[in-house]
Specification:
Cytidine Deaminase, domain 2; elongated; alpha/beta; Dihydrofolate Reductase, subunit A; 2 domains; 374 residues; nine-stranded mixed sheet
C-alpha cells in the first residue's frame, strides 16, 4: 500500500491520491461498457487503507471494493473517487449509502456524473449526511478518462474515433491501392492498444477486400473489440480473416435486398448479420449504442470515413503521419469527398496534441462540436 506524507497540505495531497484513483480506474479499460471507468481510494492518517476499481457492468462499484478492504478503519477516513458516487439503484445499490454507512468523514470527487440519475444528487446526499465533499480535483484528467462515457450520456451515441495512417503528402496507399505498411511497427502496436480499449472497430467492404484485416488487439491478455463491417451490396470474399470468429466476434451490416446467399454463408460461419433498409454510419452507431457500447473505432477507408464524419459519428481523430512521400494524383486520401467547397466549411480540430511513435508522428484532436450540457 502507498503511504503519503502527513505534512503535505490537503491541496497537495488531494491531487496525488486522485491520480492514483485514475491509475486504478485504467485497469478496466475496454471492459466496463456501458459503465464508466472508476477508481476509489480510502485514506486515513496518510495511509491507504482500502482501494479498488470497477471491473465491469454487473460487478460492484469501485467504492464497494475500497470500503470492503478498509473495513471499520473507514470511519473518519477520506474517500477519493474520480466520478461522483451513484445515488440510485441499478445493478448495484447506491454507493452514497455505502459511504455514509461506513462513516467516512470526507469525500473527494474528480467530476460530477453526467448521468441525469446522478448529476449532483450523489454530492447532495453525502452533504446532507454531514460529510465534507470536495469536487473538481484533477477534473480535466477525470473527464478525459471517461470522455466516451460522457459523450454517450449527453448525446445517446457511442464516442467515435477515426484512426488513419498517411504519408507526409496525405496518402493512405499508392495509386495501385498498396498500403502495407504506411507506418512503423511501433505505430501499428499503438493501434493494437487502441483496439483493446474500444468496444467495436468498423470498416467498409473495400477494406475487407483490399487488406483482409484481423482487427484484433493481437494480445491474449487484452480485450478484442467487436469487428464491424458495413457493406451495402455484400460483395465480399468468402475467405476472410474476419469470418473466423474463434478469437473475436464479427458483425456485418448490410441492406435488406443484398446477397441473400452470402448472408446465409456468413451466419453459418458464426458471423452476425443485420439487415437495414438504409445503411448509414448513424444507423450503425445507433445499434451499437443499444448494445451498450462506449467507444467505437473507425478504421475505414476515405469514402466511409467521410460519411461517418458527415453523419456526426466521429468525435476524435487519431492521425498517424509517416515521414514518407509517394505522390500520385489519384492515390487515396484518409477522408473522401465531404462536399465542401470553401475552406471556411472545413471540419476543425481542437485540443490538439502530437507525439512521436517510432519514426512516425501521432496527431490527436477533437472535432469541434456543440458544448456539453453539464
Amino acid at each position: 500500500m502507498l503511504k503519503f506524507d502527513d505534512s503535505e497540505n490537503q491541496n497537495q495531497l488531494d491531487p496525488l491520491i486522485m491520480a492514483h484513483c485514475l491509475e486504478l480506474a485504467r485497469r478496466a479499460l475496454g471492459n466496463t461498457a456501458p459503465n464508466p471507468l472508476v477508481g476509489c481510494v480510502i485514506i486515513k492518517n496518510g495511509q491507504i487503507i482500502g482501494e479498488g476499481f470497477h471491473p465491469g457492468a454487473g460487478y460492484p462499484h469501485a467504492e464497494v471494493f475500497a470500503l470492503t478492504e478498509a473495513g471499520e478503519k473507514a470511519r473518519g477516513a477520506t474517500a477519493y473517487v474520480n466520478l461522483e458516487p451513484c445515488n440510485h439503484y441499478g445493478r448495484t445499490p447506491p454507493c452514497t449509502d455505502a459511504l455514509i454507512a461506513a462513516g467516512v468523514a470526507r469525500v473527494v470527487i474528480g467530476m460530477i456524473d453526467p448521468n441525469p440519475l446522478v448529476a449532483g444528487a450523489g454530492v447532495a446526499k453525502l452533504q446532507d449526511a454531514g460529510i465534507e465533499v470536495v469536487v473538481g480535483v484533477l477534473e480535466a484528467e477525470c473527464r478525459e478518462l471517461n470522455e466516451a462515457f460522457i459523450h454517450r450520456m449527453l448525446y445517446h451515441c457511442p464516442f467515435g474515433i477515426l484512426k488513419y495512417a498517411m504519408t507526409l503528402d496525405g496518402k493512405i496507399a499508392t495509386t495501385t491501392g498498396h498500403s502495407a505498411w504506411v507506418t512503423s511497427q511501433e505505430a501499428r502496436s499503438e493501434v493494437h492498444k487502441l483496439r483493446a480499449i474500444s468496444d467495436a472497430v468498423i470498416i467498409g467492404g473495400n477494406t475487407v477486400r483490399r487488406d483482409n484485416p484481423f482487427l484484433t488487439s493481437r494480445s491474449t491478455q487484452a480485450n478484442n473489440p467487436l469487428r464491424v463491417v458495413m457493406s451495402r451490396s455484400l460483395d465480399l470474399p468468402t475467405e476472410a480473416n474476419l469470418w473466423d470468429v474463434s478469437e473475436a466476434q464479427t458483425l456485418v451490416f448490410t441492406e435488406i435486398d443484398s446477397n441473400q446467399e452470402f448472408k446465409e454463408y456468413l451466419r453459418q460461419k458464426g458471423v452476425e448479420v443485420l439487415e437495414t433498409s438504409t445503411l448509414t454510419p448513424a444507423v450503425v452507431m445507433s445499434n451499437l449504442y443499444d448494445r451498450g457500447f462506449l467507444s467505437v473505432l473507425w478504421e475505414c477507408g476515405g469514402t466511409l470515413a467521410a460519411r461517418a464524419m458527415a453523419d456526426g459519428a466521429v468525435q476524435k481523430i487519431w492521425a498517424f503521419i509517416a515521414p514518407k512521400i509517394i505522390g500520385g494524383e489519384i492515390a487515396p486520401t484518409p477522408v473522401g469527398n465531404l462536399g465542401l467547397t470553401k475552406m471556411t466549411e472545413a471540419f476543425e480540430l481542437e485540443n490538439i496534441s502530437m507525439r512521436t511513435v517510432g519514426c512516425d508522428y501521432l496527431l490527436e484532436g477533437y472535432l469541434h462540436q456543440k458544448k456539453e450540457k453539464f
